[in-house]
Amino acid sequence: MLTATFHGHACFLLEGDGKRIVIDPFLTGNPAAVIGPDGLPKLDAILLSHGHGDHLGDAVALAKRDKATIVATAELAGFCGDKGATAHAMHIGGAHQFPFGRVKLVPAFHGGRVEGDATGKYTTNPCGVVVGLGGKTVYHTGDTGLTLEMQLLEGRVDLMLVPIGDNYTMGIEDAVRAVEFVKPKIVIPMHYNTWDVIRADPRAFQRDVGTRAEVRILAPGESQILS
Ligand code: NI
Ligand code: MN
Predict the structure, then answer these.
(1) Distance between Cα 184 and ligand 2 center (Å)
(2) Which of 7, 33, 99, 152 has minimal CB crowding within 10 Å?
(3) What is the 195 CA–ligand 1 centroid distance (Å)?
(4) What is the pLDDT of residues 130-181, one digit of tens each?
(5) What would the mean pLDDT of 66-94 be, rounded to a whole number?
């Protein structure tokens, strides 16, 4: 069994097998979040899709608080390590079995800046994250445009977390095509309505996905259970 809780923007808490993983923990300064970082339970791991501030967020502070491991692409993991966090470096195409579950990084097309890096030395590729936990497979696409690489995950995903806010990422039209590519059982839209520039109607996304997958629209703080 897996429980996925949406915490606004692109932040999800995944719980299964007695383990807790957060992805993209942007809570401080997140207008869409209803909790701060103190509202998160003790974490085993923190997964990052990329270094933009609305994803890196509270990662380093949470890693220190809980002695949790940050998992990210090598350059971003290096940045977090240099900030004093425990970090495990991976890269796109690689998978690793951790005590808290299996993680694979997959391609995402987006910007590579790391928030808080004045040196430019940590510029990295963004990624999507595929996590096996609680007997389920979760695909968090990260911030990305529609890519053909998504087709490589066809039929392998139970829960897909997909941006619909447009402007910086896919909008609804391309997010529907992404669902067609991946064919997950359940989809939760993300990365919308945090700010005006990424305003989108999740009901329109749900309608346009139709019978291709079950679309669950979560308000921040709400959970989806996969049993
Ligand atoms: Ni971004
Ligand atoms: Mn973003």
Answers:
(1) 22
(2) 99
(3) 13
(4) 999 999 999 999 999 999 999 999 999 999 999 999 999 999 999 999 999 9
(5) 97
Q: Please tell me the number of the ligand nearest to residue 32's CA.
A: 2
Residue 73 pairs with which residues in a beta bridge? 90
Structure tokens at 140: 């968090």
Angle 38-44-47 (CA atoms, 0-180°, nearest 5)? 85
47 pLDDT more than 90: yes
Contact yes or no for 11/22 (Cβ under 8 A): yes
Ligand 2 centroid–CA 143 distance in Å is 6
Q: Which amino acid is at 178?
A: A
Average pLDDT, integer, range 43-63 = 98
Helices (H), 83-214: 172-182, 202-209
Cα-to-centroid distance, 24 and ligand 1 (Å): 10
Distance CA 147, CA 59 (A): 27
Q: What residues have their beta carbon closer than 5 A to ion ligand 1? A: 52, 143
If you measure from the C-alpha of residue 111 to the centroid of ligand 2, how many angstroms do you get, rounded to a whole number? 9
